[in-house]
Amino acid sequence: MALPAYRHLLRAIRTAFQDDHALQRAARASTRRAFAASRALAPDSPEARSGVAHAQEVARVLRENVVQGQRAGDVYRLRIHPGIERGDNDTVKNPNTSATAPRVKCCSER
Fold this sequence. Notes:
Blueprint lengths: L1 H15 L4 H17 L8 H20 L2 E5 L2 E5 L9 H5 L17
Antiparallel strand pairs: 1-2
């Protein structure tokens, strides 16, 4: 269970940071350290399961939400790969009121 999650995370790192070799090395080293620290855990333990779930979530975020940009003169060119989650700006304009906390007056409004 941990080995597929580890490989999945490494693939997501390779995709998200495709041309940034220094960042790829740093992310792989951090992943390796995190998995090595959990190596002694029993595969059925809750800590191991939560670690695998965390690795899968990080891989998903890297694959779907991380876009790198490169400076080309005065503009930045974005490297958007096919796995990037895309939304439209119309949904951003409509706030989801059920997910927001109730508004609390600040001290100047009391």
